[in-house]
Amino acid sequence: MITFVARRFVRLILVLIGITIVSFAFMQAIPGDPVTIRLGEHASADQVAALRAALGLDKPWFVQLGLYFAHLLQGDLGRSVSDAQPVATKLAEHFPATVELSIGALIVAVTIGIPAGIFAALRRNGVLDILTMSAVLLGVSTPVFVLGWMLVYLLAVVPSNFGLNLFPISGRISLTYYVPTRTHLIVLDALLAGNVRAALDALWHLVLPAVTLGTIPLAIVAKITRSGMFEVLRSDYVRTARAKGLGPAAVVVKHALRNALIPILTVVGLQTGLLLGGAVLTEHIFAWPGVGRLAFEAISNRDMPVINGCILLFATVFVVVNAAVDILYAAANPRIRYG
Questions:
Q1: Are 88 and 291 in contact (CB under 8 A)?
Q2: Are 210 and 105 contacting, i.e. CB atoms less than 8 angstroms apart?
Q3: How far is CA 148 from CA 28, 31, 279, 283, in A?
Q4: Are 273 and 317 within 8 A, CB to CB?
Q5: Closest residue by Cα to residue 267 from 106, 132, 128
Q6: What is residue 338's predicted lDDT score, i.e. its pLDDT?
Q7: Over the stretch 118-136, which tens digit does the pLDDT of each residue have?
Q8: What tens digit of pLDDT does each residue of 87-128 get?
Q9: Angstrom distance (rounded) from CA 255 to CA 35
């Protein structure tokens, strides 16, 4: 296990280095000047030159890259070109919102996707199976931005025309509530403050973004669960368990589901990494102040330090989550061991 963790750590470092180099080279090829964006089109040539020198943008890109790595080794992610705030501070402010949204989307995907896959496998080629697979196909095929705008229009805008306030359009919580910041997770902070109404309001704001972001993972989890359960249900040990007189629930949960968990854990781990990596479109549609929205604004402004900070955060989360999933394999299947 120690060897496995060490290998994963080395892989993490190599992935971060590679992604940083590629993103630096890619951003250099994109038209536009972040200094001009910050100062405006009417800034003088001397002002532009002075700011470029202050930010180190007058140097070749490979020199900028070397300086960035040097600061990175000291734990310094740099400062934003747009507002001169430390990148680490901006990430710390926005990442909890992405975590909260991702947790909500993952709960939607797992709590609906796994049972749907199980019931579809138990009723293969039946009405429930056909409906589940049709919903899976629809969920995977619908773009996030289309689903998001549809949910906003049908469940927020249209009801408001009839005086109904079913769901909010944007934000994490209503302006009427004040929640002291402790963990930066609004629902948890509201509960820690003993303000149940604020927690419910935050959950209310979370519903539409979580459903939008969780639809594609839900469809994938349901399909993988159905495939895995169908294969396991035809195995000899499941038939033996049934022959011993075990009830359907015990056979499905204790014997079949546990042995089908490996592919389910794999897809859940991958989807978790992708969700935490930044739900750019979902956060943009619902004005959700997460890392995805921060990255979108940074790309629009060619704010290289913020872009690289977001990319490093995305890559780190993705690799760490997948390493954790690999470790969970051993817990789900004792036959798996790592040297």
A1: no
A2: yes
A3: 33, 30, 12, 10
A4: yes
A5: 106
A6: 56
A7: 888 888 878 888 888 888 8
A8: 999 999 899 999 999 999 999 999 998 888 888 888 887 888
A9: 61
Q: For the chain, which ranges sit under pLDDT 50?
A: none
Question: DSSP letter at 338?
Answer: -
Burial class (CB in 10 A: 0-12, 13-18, 19+), 18: exposed
Closest CA to 55 of 302, 312, 311, 293: 302
Q: Specify the pTM.
A: 0.82
User: Does domain 87-332 bear CATH number 3.30.40.10?
Assistant: no
Q: Domain residue spans in the chain?
A: 87-332
Q: Which two tokens stand for residue 255?
A: 């014997």
pLDDT of residue 202: 93
Q: Look at residues 280, 300, 297 and name the one whose alpha carbon lies nearest to residue 212.
A: 280
> What is the predicted pLDDT for the residue at 100?
92
Q: What's the gap between Cα 50 and its chain centre? A: 39
**For position 97, what pLDDT does the model report?**
92
Whole-angstrom Cα distance, residue 283 to residue 74? 31
- The token pair that represents 327 in the structure block: 């470790």
d(CA 98, CA 293): 9
* pLDDT for the residue 243: 76
Asked if 332 contacts 232 with a C-beta cutoff of 8 angstroms, the reply is no
